[in-house]
């Protein structure tokens, strides 16, 4: 408890007070893109008065504080229950106000504006800043009635409900708490201590994997518990899943998409660690978060190279017997002067990128620098991060000179991903090979499968059918989408068994695969599985009804099932949330035009242009309809 108090977890979300607020609410003024905001205290409250809001100048009271350093963000209630995170934030180190997106000039009607759906605290942030959070959005009233057990990431956020544990701890003889259903010997739902087995193999989730069972137990449980927040993912539930819930039962992880990762898997957008770590040899060897991080202080366990030297040294670490026993911190390996930035392990093997203006985050794929690949893929490399006045060819020549006999400069999946992002059809064979190659990390193979989906056809669906039974959920999920290229008879036969998969992400993907299929008959037990999986998918969508992107999915479902009323309603909800969703406007116009409702189509195109006057597509569509 003492270690936890004052940590970034404990202070992830606090109530406004003199003790928790770092920002200068002293009448200071900040101007961004012509909009002025003044920060002040009034009647014991911290408030800001801003012009950057619908309806002109407005005074809003701070109702929550997000984070502690290197920046602090402030939460306001713009409507009853609706909390938004303001884009003007406090730089703790430099003691200044700054805007998270200095080049953006958005009107309050834009979905990306700080008051819009993408900056909504209830939907986008609170789950990872609270304990026992429930979003509780009412889609009919369009109101939030969110609640949580406590703000901040408390003990129960990771360890689960603790009443039994408290009874155990308070009793003189550590009473038997097994009478509490599902708890272990100390009254907790899960045990994250890596020295003993906990309930890692929940419902046989890890059965069938190729990694040794000894590397799972608490290691995998711990990684997946941390990953719930430290990942870029789609949620299935309305708030925090019960601690101990396997990751793929609560979320769908984002693969190495071009907007998120560079072709070689290096971090690009803010992806929160897990997707990077899954690419690493450390993950493959059973390294856990707490090998490097204290779970309670949320700080590194050691400073500098000493952290890496816990394992990477002449002494090694008996927990990881495959380690090469040699020195890494000397100049023969680093080729940089001792005590210099270049001599630090993290400088070469964990590139840093800055998000939210001042927050440096390190890539956790722990990669060997490959400046030779930068010339082919345009992905960054650690060498040129520092030597910005040099070319990647120069850096590649240096590395080749330092390590002339290296085996680490062979072909790399990034060469295929980069080429496929440029010309997908030309790389079909290479992507298939990547997907089938079992020595690549699962997230890389799943990415290859995901990229092939637009070209799905009967041949690809048949070739990659064996991956539907792959032990890795990420691969099964991605392989399901490729089956849309198969005939309905083949698709249903291949997917029906996955409707009862032990992993929810796979069941939902299988349910999506059945959407729109005309199936004459399914045996009762298969029909029950289909109904259950469809119900899980629908529940996951209902939990995100306040997301514009969810409404687009619902609209797509309406189109697939030829329910134009459903599609139109969902497209309408989408543009109400985000008026800049051009494609939603376009689809509404096309549907009404196809139904012969030309006056309605013209009315909608006029509404769309009022929100998006510079859209070439909408202007051309209006001219076409008006003829």
What would you say this structure looks like, in words?
The protein is α+β, with helices and mostly antiparallel strands and 627 residues long. Strands 1, 2, 3, 4, 5, 6, 7, 8 and 9 form a nine-stranded antiparallel beta sheet that branches. Strands 10-13 form a two-stranded antiparallel ribbon. A hairpin with a 7-residue loop joins strand 4 (45-50) and strand 5 (58-66). The longest helix has 19 residues, at 524-542. The model is unreliable at 195-216 (pLDDT under 50).
Shape: globular
Give the number of DSSP strands.
17
Measured as a percent range, the helix fraction is: 25-40%
Mean pLDDT: 92
- Give the terminus-to-terminus CA distance: 71 Å
Radius of gyration, Cα only, in angstroms? Answer: 26 Å
Number of helices: 26
Q: Hey, roughly how much beta strand do the residues contain?
A: 5-15%
Instruction: Please summarize the sheet with the most strands.
Output: 9 strands, antiparallel
What class, by secondary structure content?
A: alpha+beta
Unreliably modeled segments:
195-216
């Amino acid at each position: 408890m003492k270690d936890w108090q004052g940590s970034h977890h404990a202070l992830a979300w606090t109530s406004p007070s003199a003790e928790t607020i770092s920002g200068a609410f002293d009448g200071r003024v900040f101007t961004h893109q012509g909009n002025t905001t003044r920060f002040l205290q009034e009647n014991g409250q911290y408030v800001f008065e801003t012009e950057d809001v619908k309806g002109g100048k407005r005074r809003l009271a701070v109702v929550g504080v997000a984070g502690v350093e290197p920046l602090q963000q402030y939460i306001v209630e713009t409507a009853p229950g609706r909390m938004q995170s303001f884009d003007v934030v406090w730089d703790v180190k430099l003691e200044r106000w700054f805007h998270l997106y200095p080049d953006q000039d958005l009107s309050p009607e834009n979905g990306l504006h700080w008051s819009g759906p993408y900056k909504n605290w209830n939907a986008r942030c609170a789950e990872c800043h609270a304990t026992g959070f429930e979003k509780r959005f009412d889609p009919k009233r369009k109101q939030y009635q969110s609640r949580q057990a406590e703000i901040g990431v408390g003990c129960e956020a990771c360890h689960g409900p603790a009443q039994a544990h408290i009874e155990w701890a308070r009793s003189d003889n550590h009473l038997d708490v097994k009478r509490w259903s599902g708890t272990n010997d100390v009254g907790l739902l899960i045990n994250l201590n890596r020295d003993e087995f906990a309930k890692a193999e929940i419902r046989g989730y890890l059965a069938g994997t190729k990694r040794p069972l000894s590397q799972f137990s608490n290691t995998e449980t711990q990684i997946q518990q941390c990953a719930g927040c430290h990942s870029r993912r789609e949620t299935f539930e309305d708030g925090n899943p019960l601690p101990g819930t396997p990751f793929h039962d609560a979320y769908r992880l984002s693969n190495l998409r071009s907007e998120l990762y560079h072709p070689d898997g290096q971090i690009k957008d803010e992806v929160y660690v897990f997707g990077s770590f899954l690419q690493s040899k450390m993950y493959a060897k059973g390294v856990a978060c707490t090998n490097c991080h204290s779970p309670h202080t949320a700080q590194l366990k050691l400073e500098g190279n000493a952290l890496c030297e816990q394992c990477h040294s002449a002494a090694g670490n008996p927990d990881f017997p495959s380690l090469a026993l040699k020195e890494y911190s000397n100049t023969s390996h680093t080729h940089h002067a001792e005590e210099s930035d270049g001599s630090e392990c993290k400088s070469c093997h964990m590139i840093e990128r800055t998000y939210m203006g001042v927050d440096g985050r390190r890539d956790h794929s722990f990669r060997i620098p490959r400046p030779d690949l930068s010339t082919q893929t345009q992905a960054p490399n650690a060498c040129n991060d520092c030597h910005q006045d040099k070319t990647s060819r120069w850096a590649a020549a240096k590395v080749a000179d330092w390590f002339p006999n290296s085996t680490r400069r062979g072909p790399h999946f990034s060469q295929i991903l980069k080429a496929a992002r440029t010309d997908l059809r030309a790389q079909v064979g290479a992507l298939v090979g990547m997907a089938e190659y079992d020595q690549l990390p699962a997230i890389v193979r799943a990415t290859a499968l995901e990229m092939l989906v637009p070209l799905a056809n009967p041949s690809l669906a048949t070739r990659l059918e064996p991956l539907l039974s792959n032990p890795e959920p990420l691969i099964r999920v991605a392989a399901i989408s490729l089956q849309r290229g198969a005939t309905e008879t083949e698709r249903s036969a291949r997917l029906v068994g996955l409707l009862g998969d032990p992993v929810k992400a796979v069941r939902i993907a299988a349910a999506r695969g059945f959407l729109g299929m005309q199936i004459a008959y399914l045996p009762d037990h298969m029909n029950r599985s289909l109904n259950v999986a469809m119900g899980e998918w629908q529940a996951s969508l209902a939990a995100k009804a306040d997301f514009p992107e969810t409404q687009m999915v619902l609209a797509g479902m309406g189109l697939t099932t030829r329910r134009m009323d459903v599609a139109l309603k969902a497209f309408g909800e989408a543009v109400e949330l985000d008026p800049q969703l051009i494609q939603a406007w376009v689809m509404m116009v096309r549907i009404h035009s196809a139904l012969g409702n030309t006056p309605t189509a013209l009315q909608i195109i006029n509404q769309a242009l009022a929100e998006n006057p510079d859209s070439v597509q909408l202007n051309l569509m209006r001219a076409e309809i008006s003829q």
